[in-house]
Amino acid sequence: MNRSKDSPAQSDTAMPRTQRLVREARARLAKWRGLQDLLTASAAWRTLGPMLRGWMSPATLGSGRTILEDLEEAQAGVDASLTLLEADLVPAEVLWEMSELALAQEPAVSVLVTNRDGAEALQSFLGSYAAHHGPAVAELVILDHASDDDSVEVVRAWMDRLPIQLLRCNRNQRFGVANNLARRYARGRILVFANNDLRFDEPVISALVEALRDETVGLAGAELWYPDAQGRRSDRCQHRGIRFRADASAGFQRPFNVQEGVPSGASALAETAEIEAEGDSGIPGPVPAVTAALAACRTEDFDAIGGFVADYDYGFEDVDLALTLLRQLGKGSVVCGVGAVHQEFGTQHREPEARLAERRADNARLLRSRHGAWLARQVVRSQLSGAVSGEPASSPAPTGHGEPATWHEAPIPVRLPPGQRPSESPPAGLAPLAAGSRVDPEGFPGLWLVDDPAELASPPPRGALSLARVRPDTADDWLATPGFRHADVVLCDEADDVGRLARQSRALVLPTPGLGGPGFEALSWLPGVIEAWINRPGLALKTATPDEAERQSWGDFHFAEALGRALRDLGYRVRNDILPDWHRPAFMPDDLSLVLRGLEGSTERFDGVNLLWLISHPTRVSDAELERHDHVFVASDPYAQLLASRLQTPVSALLQCTEPERFPFVDRPGAPDRRVFVGNSKGYFRPIVKAALEAGEPVEIWGTWWHEHIDESLIRGEAVPNEELGALYGNSGVVLNDHWPDMARLGFLSNRLFDVASTGSLIVSDPVRGLGAVFGDQVVVADQLPEGFPSLDAGIVADREGRRALAETISRHHTFEQRARTIARVVRDLAPGGFTVPSEIP
Q: In terms of C-beta density within 10 A (0-12 exposed, 13-18 middle, 19 or more buried), how is residue 650 classed?
């Protein structure tokens, strides 16, 4: 006799409005699908359909793609979106049954099985399970997803022979969601995840449990084998653990099944892990991850990390589980020497191809965002292990039994400069390409070595790590090459050149005295360089600079360059991404991203920790965008307080700043009578300039789009090179400054205020909230713009003593070095353990 209980159903009146809307939308979609089925299944459609398709695609006689396929895929996409909404907003209704054998048991192990329309597979699973496991071994928690076949009847037929809890859900759910739900009913201290399409030919539960006696093991997996023609175990292994290979097009390390004895060209897709199968050999033991088609973990460990991440949609849930157990609890994965036949029954292959590709891409993005940089470090360290000067490199994180595992598929490819080949055997983990080897420009997951600045005229392939060798007496040639900024690592022989190369590039500049040779003939030092680079936390600065051609004219770009230099001095490796590069793949995914929010923001999160510094245009930024970040900095004290009162994301004030080295104090300006304004007209006659000209002040203008507003004689140029801007400010008597209206009203002090104040020149600015708190009375305020402009006598302009004290205050409290340290302190608190942040930050 079995006992059952219905979970209470929610009435429509008690149901939250969002849940009612989801159900109403699904009901309407069901009506549409019913109408569509009626049309497409009718006798009339069988005649009309081919004619309509032939008319739509006559060149292919109706066999080509038409709008009908577009409509079917659109419908599938809407259905998938509603499924995700329903999973998040509407709790599944569960009907629960428990066999008498289960009621009489206090199980130590719970086997969790999910099923949808898999009656035949489920019958094979339960029959083979019972043949090799007694009723006392474990309870089975079987969750059925509203099957339309005889699945429930199959389970009930076994409830007199096995201890079973049967959970009947009113809808299908994602793998992680379903197993998290099943865990709520599980009573064992060990959880075993098992696909319904397994067929057992030996006992497995005791071996999985035994592996978990080792406290360093978090997840114990099993071998999986393809079936032969009779459904028995063949000699083709499907799974002996999971390793990773670099996928440069997607910008992450892609999981794949370790196999043994797989014929060339064979492939498979695991039901619960979206893993490409490739021929490889492996032995049972420590592995980076295992598939949850058959795996066990401790219930307390599963709960400690929050179970499966529910956002995965039938792909990578198990890989994420293994990596999270390792990262958070220090417990790795092993493959035991037992296994089962995996028959790969499933429903996900029925999806339209476009929807399947979209789902896989979403899963890849989620895995990359959660583990990308940490995972890439483990793979590269595994590749380089033992290759640094005969000494082991930093080992990857230990896996099961506290031992390291092989994380990777192949060595790191190395592209040498044209005409070069290594003069020695390459170190372990590196594979120099043969001369003339073709490289995919859209994705090269390796090292791109250059010894001629002309080679960086165009960017290296996407995903490559570029290393530039600067030989003696060639530093000026490299600095004169615009493409020099594409280098990730710069190797420099001359100590005198290291500093200036570091100041004028985004690269990690490493001194390499005694490297020897004109180029890259010797490679023994290369693993150590890679190790030094990957050990630094990676930070991507994101600006709205539209393209390479305009970067020199965008203040946000130079702001990012200055901040990047300060962060590199603290031990970060920094990349300055203009708008087209925001989502580009990289050899090493970023540990964190910092959006310098001006004109543009991102509609999605980036990899790792997400930071945003709101430096301008505050009214163009929604609260929803800010909430997508882990911390928000605001270049305004009053507006930071307003945001902190209404956002859940932590908010702190972080004013703009300057580089005193680039904007030094000038005692005696060379042109004290010069009045200067540097900035574009932005499509209108800027009030501060208009007022100055109407007051008779002869303002010199540097900027674009001014011709329609002022006399040509006042325009000195469209831009000032950033390296010359400090001298222009410091050697002028007066520098004009203004703000966008929303910035002035909300207290966003412009970057120009800090730059000019650092040089000691007099600033005339429009009024902005909070100006006096930072700059005191050393800024002349033009508070009646555009009608009036303050009078400036020679004494006010010439008196620099007060402004000297202000410049000293700026150099102590408002520099990029100070801002970088503040950001680093926040990062230290947010770091999830995937990377090591610089520790000595005051």
A: middle
The amino acid present at 747, given as its one-letter code, is G
- Average of pLDDT values for 73-80? 69
At 702, the pLDDT band (50, 70, 90 cuts) reads very high
Residue 82: per-residue pLDDT: 67
pLDDT in tens, 590-633: 899 999 998 888 888 888 899 999 999 999 999 999 999 999 99
> Taking residues 179-207, what's their average pLDDT?
96
Contact, 495 vs 475, CB < 8 A? no
485 has a pLDDT exceeding 90: no
User: Which residue type sits at 551?
Assistant: R
Q: Looking at residue 261, what is its pLDDT?
A: 42
Please choose, from the candidates 819, 756, 777, 766, the residue with its C-alpha nearest in 3D space to the C-alpha of residue 615: 819
Q: HSE, CB side, 13 Å, CA atoms: give it for residue 650.
A: 11
Q: Report the C-alpha gap between 613 and 819 in whole angstroms.
A: 11
Q: Is the dihedral of CA 320, 323, 327, 329 positive or negative?
A: positive
Q: What is the spatial order of strands in the sheet that 538-542 belongs to?
A: 573-577, 538-542, 592-597, 609-614, 631-634, 651-653
Q: Hey, CA dihedral for 784, 785, 789, 790, is it positive or negative?
A: positive
pLDDT of residue 278: 39
Q: State the average pLDDT for the chain.
A: 84
Tell me the C-alpha distance between 638 and 292, whole Å.
51
Inter-CA distances, 363 with 255, 275, 309, Å? 12, 11, 11
Sign of CA dihedral 171, 173, 179, 183: negative
Helix axis angle, 801-813 to 751-759, nearest 10°:
130
Q: Which amino acid is at 758?
A: S
Q: Six-digit token pair at 805?
A: 């004290």
**Amino acid (one-letter) located at 81:** S
Residues 6+ apart with CB under 8 A from 638: 746, 747, 769, 770
What does the block give as tokens for 366?
């989620």
The share of the chain scoring above pLDDT 90, in percent, equals 45
The candidate with the shortest Cα–Cα distance to 405, out of 430, 385, 423, is 385
Residues 222 and 206: beta-carbon distance below 8 Å:
no
Instruction: Count how many Cα atoms sit within 13 Å of the Cα of residue 531 in the half-sphere of its side chain.
Output: 22
| Tokens coding 257 | 């099944």
What confidence score (pLDDT) does residue 391 get? 36
Helix (H) or strand (E) holding 605: none
Q: Which SS3 state, helix, strand or coil, does residue 510 take?
A: strand
Neighbouring-strand partners of residue 94: 169
Please, which residues have CB within 8 angstroms of residue 82's CB and are 6 or more apart in sequence?
22, 25, 26, 29
- Helix axis angle for 353-384 and 67-89, nearest 10°, is 60
Residues in CB range of 551: below 8 A, 6 or more apart: 545, 557, 578
Task: Look at the chain and count its residues.
Answer: 842
**Helix (H), strand (E) at residue 610:** strand 609-614
Average of per-residue pLDDT across 342-358: 70
End-to-end, the C-alpha distance of the chain in Å comes to 69
Contact call for residues 664 and 726 (beta carbons, < 8 A)? yes
Per-residue pLDDT, 486: 79
